[in-house]
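Researcher: First entry.
Model:
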Amino acid sequence: MKGSAKEWSRFTPQERLARFSVFLGFGIAFALSLQKVEVIPEFLLDAPQQVVDLLTRMWPVDYSYYWEGVHVALVETLHIATLGTLMSLFFALPIGVMAAGNITKIGFLNWFAKLLLVSSRSVNTLVWALLFVAVFGPGALAGTVCIAFRSIGFVGKLFAEALEETDPGPVEAMIAAGAPWPSVFLKGYWPQVAPAFWAIFLFRWDINVRESAVIGLVGAGGIGMALDTSLNLFYWDRVSLILLAIFAVVVLAEVVVTNIRKRII
């Protein structure tokens, strides 16, 4: 007696039900979100015409305004990004060490360090900028502190994860030989995490260059303040110049970071 042929199926009934549930959930979430957003059809249909009108007003670009109102603000943006990133290292490195479970065995310190890292990352950069503008007043100081505080969570978390992924062999050998803790860290941990550390630092500086151009919109210094002024005064030819300057700086920062990473890592 021949056995019945088995029918091949890509998914089991349980998997089909799970996939259907996921797609149904996404569909419901999309429908509810679309309803809450309240898209106005008239504005949506008119958008292409408005974009063409805006681009027409932004052309030709007012290049003469660069030295008058863009160059200094652009340099200030780079200073904010660089100084803020460097400042974040002084706090992110010790907090990252405390957050690494294989180094810090004290549960309270480990939990407290992770809480600090989460607190830094949980709030958007613009919100931190608004807070520090209220504390320090408008200007580059508020922007620098904002960038530094926001970067602590990013740098510290990735640094802690790099420490937790190190090979324990060299570390255990140095501890067995009686080496002091600073030597264990500098000779056992640091050589393993140094490439990751420099990659994290460069990547965060690249991000901070972009964010420094945005926080000026709320008064935290840099090119964003010049952009906000031009937008408020409807100087669209200057707006296009500022946007081109931001784009050029971001591309240049990307090129610089990529080349440095190739040489260091």
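Researcher: Second entry.
Model:
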Amino acid sequence: MTEKSLGRGLSAFLDFSEQNSENPGREILKINVDSIIPNPFQPRKTFDEESLNSLAESIKRNGVLQPILVLKSDNENYRLIAGERRLRASKIAGIMEIPAIVTEMSSEDQLEIAIIENIQRENLNPLDEARAYKQLMDEFHHTQEELSGILGKSRSHIANMLRLLTLPDEIKDLVRSGKLSCGHARALVGAEDAISVADLAVSESMNVREIEKLIKQRKQPRANKEDSEITHLAEQISSLVGLKSGIKLKGNGGVVEINFGNFEELDFLIRKLNG
């Protein structure tokens, strides 16, 4: 598959100073905020109220420094593609008109730009960010390595964020509400008793290192019990065949090893197995 060029509309959006003369399709207009329809492809599900209020105060003082990106919807309305935080903050600030670049693009490009603009412009809620990476991979068939180069994020960061999507819903809710940080959530990925650890972490205001230590401590008794059971089984096999034996676990299976010191012992084992 030929790699799809990500963010080509976004690059024009960010470099809006080169519009008009070379590309009339990138014309900047002042548009009434009430005539702008929300982006149906918006990947962001949560907006931090404090951050929006801070941006609104900045807009009151300095205006909207960069235009939003919109698509002509009908004679009177426009569909937002990128810049929802600026639009929301402008409404909070009481600004009636906002600078906008009017463009034309497919639904696929709208989705693409909305996702990338959110990732590059503002720190998303960790789960929204993870979903954005997954959506880029699912919709545009990009690998983690390709996204790393396109977005300027390390491949390990993208992989770690994607793992958050495997967490139980109860933990995801704690992350969305801000009760658990992204670091807390990453430490809980793969833990068998993740929900109970998460609840304890919230109630005890535990840091990431404390969570990792607790998970390790809870694993240790279970590991010791499994080791004891395996040792007992290996001793039973040794008793049955008359030779020293061992068991090595591999995933859900494993290997039984029977040791012999010479060919006479091997011959003895074969006779034993043959009854």
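Model: Note on the second entry: Residues 228-273 form one domain.
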